[in-house]
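Final report, section 2: Outcomes. Of the targets proposed, Mannose-6-phosphate isomerase, class I is the one most frequently requested by collaborating groups, and we therefore present its record in full.
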Amino acid sequence: MMNEPLFMVPVLHEKIWGGDQLKKQFGYDIPSPKTGEAWGISAHKNGLTTIANGEYAGVKLVDVWRKHPELFADMDTTKPFPLMVKILDAHADLSIQVHPNDAYAKKHEGPRELGKTECWYVLSATLGASIYYGHTATTKSELREMVQTGNWQKLLKRKVVKAGDFIYVPSGTIHALGAGVVVLEPQRSSDTTYRLYDFDRIDQTTGKKRSLDWDKAMDVTTVPFTEPVVEQETIEEKNFQQTQLIDSPDFIVNRLRIKADKTISKTQPKDSFTLASVVDGSGEIIKDGHKSTLNKGDHFIIPSNFGDYEIEGSELEIVTTEPGEKIKQIG
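The predicted structure is given below as tokens.
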């Protein structure tokens, strides 16, 4: 029986819109001041995270997934690992984009490709920073006309955000992070993005504008856009708060806040596993007398056979992601 979670070594990606907040806020060893993404937990081919500790130290998560289904509620590990967690630093606006659902991704991108539903938990935002979220078109033809004529100001909806905000982004939603926003992004394990607009930026590698995907993007965009209603529940006691940010078919996301001198008891259900990211503070996980240190920027998995454990914290904030019912049913 394991007495410590599976800690991950994040994979860092440079982006045209990236900055240096992943180093400043989380201490990551970024490859350049244009680092946009830290893939904290990933078994996707474009960013394979590695186990940092224990008997699987040095092994890629994807290999542990394939060989040890007992750690993942005996899901079908011949299929792709279903979830991913990133931290994104938007030093500049991201491209205006949309993601497909599972059926479209499999048909157009390959039989093992997943669709991409995601969510954002805002970790920091400069004053007045915003996101692009949704659109005004009422029909597909109106959407196509506004895209082709570049009527972005009329088409795109924007929303001002602040630290602590939560945004649910189902597949089919036109969206983008705006400059000055840093988010934790729990999502399906997919890297399929269809760009509608990229502000005419030039890729420094090619010297050309980045490619756009109008046809596929308009295929998959949900029209009209209706902002999802997300119901949240909070349990609160002295020095501890747990908020369920969302319970969706793809993932269940919770935020835990633990103040100093507080220990909470947890039990990992045998029918699920938990992806966890430390977004603030420090603490420990205690399992059978063994203590694992938690620091801001850590990402780890609590496997389905982990059983009972405790968490101690000092202004500790953890965001956890678990498979939703759809993933459990198809897994």
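The longest strand covers residues 308-323.
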